[in-house]
Structure formats: C-alpha cells, structure tokens
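User: I'm curious whether this sequence folds into something compact or stays loose and floppy. Could you predict its structure so I can see for myself?
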Amino acid sequence: ESGKPKEPFSSATIANRHIKHDQSTMEHLAAPAPEVEAAKADRAMSSASLTVAPVAPCEDATAESVRSVEPAMTVDDPKKFSPPITKEEASHLSVKVLRGSGIEFEAKAAIIQGGVKKDIFRKYLPAIFDERDFVSYGEVLRYMFIKNNCILVYTEETSPSPLYAVQISDVTMEQEDPKKPDKNSFTVSPRASTNEASANMLTFLLRDKVTRKIAYQVTFDTTSDKSLGKMFMDIFQRNAKQYGDEVITASVVGSNSKTAKNPKS
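Assistant: Here's the prediction. I'll summarize afterward.
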C-alpha cells in the first residue's frame, strides 16, 4: 500500500537482478573470433650457383670517312624563297593583294617623282631667281609599301594598282640635310615665314644610279612616329644588299636656293 514504507530488497533479489543484467549485456556482444592454426612458411628451395661467362674479345672499331655533301643553302635566301618582283607583276598588285602576300614596310609619305624643273632664268641667274620650291604635304600624300626588291606607290589605300613601282636596284638613297637641302629638291610643308622644312619632316632622295639625278623624293611626317625614317632606311639597305646591289646613304649638300610649278608625284 502506498501509505506503508517499502521494505528493503533482500540480498538474493539484488543478486538475481545483476545476473539478469549481465546476461542481457552478453547477448549484444560480438561472438569471439574462432581459433586459427599457427602460420607456417615453406622452406626455401636451394638454387644452382650463378656463373658469369667471360667477356669475348671483339674487333677494333673502325670509322668510315665522311662523304662530301652539297653546300648548304640558307632558308632566307631571297632570290630563291622571295624572288624579285618584275615591273609587270608589280603593276597589277592591289593594296589588298599586297598586304595579303606579306609586306616589309608600309607608311604614308609625301612622294614626288623627279626633281625641280628649272627654267633658263633659274638655271643661269640662280642668285636672283633660284629660291626654294615648296609643296604642301597633303598635296603629294601617297601610300608607300616595300616588298622584296620593289617600292610600290599608291594614291589610296584601296587602289587596285600602283602609280608606279621603283626597283630598289635602280636607285641609291640619301637622307637630306634640312639645313643644306639639294637645290633640285622640294621643301615639303615649310615652316611659317621660311623655306626651311618643319622639324617633323624627314626627307630621303632616291637617285638614279646612272644619271645621279633625283628620281624620287620621299618625305615622312614623323610627328607620331619618330622611328619611321630609320625603319625605311634599314629595310631599304637590307633589301638592296639581299638583292645584290650596294646602297649609298648620305646627307645631301647643296646651295640654298619659292613657289614653283606643281611637282609630278
């Protein structure tokens, strides 16, 4: 009854409860591992003793003489891998085709064909009539390309054919001294109130190898690219050498010599 105090468990009752608890716990334990036999190793089998065969003598080495071969040809030989362009071939090259075939130099430049034409007064009375002739840069602006042995000149970037093609082997090149220009050259876009070329204008004269007269005048505006002149000169010299001709570069020395007839460009 709830009102009566509980009697303490007897020692036998406590012992029975411990036994039942231990039996319940054992039921959830894993079974012990089965017994196995002790590991055994087979005895190593004896093998026959190793024998090494003696080194057999061999014949003395002999070297065959090297056979002669043909001389090597450099892969950059321009006459074989970049043959010269004839004037007939050059006359049909559009700017698009030219760029697609590979070019070595491309730039805008003021290009004039030939030198200043002098009348009798200028020829025989230079002190009175022989002043410098000038022309504006935009008036004679052209598109110029160098490929192999040719300088090709176009009026526009979309031109179907060049105005003319200059064979590098037919001319020599001189960088003009703006302080001492050639008396037969033009001053391109001179400075205000003077006949001197602007500091950014760099002129080269291409002379006929036979007559030594000015065949072409090339003037670059180097305002945005100071290396333009050097690039042109380096490629001209290299191609002249590769195609078997010597190029001459120098500063032109001439007399100080104004408005003239329009030049042929």
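Summary: The first strand starts at residue 105 and ends at 113. The CA atoms of residues 120 and 196 lie 24 Å apart.
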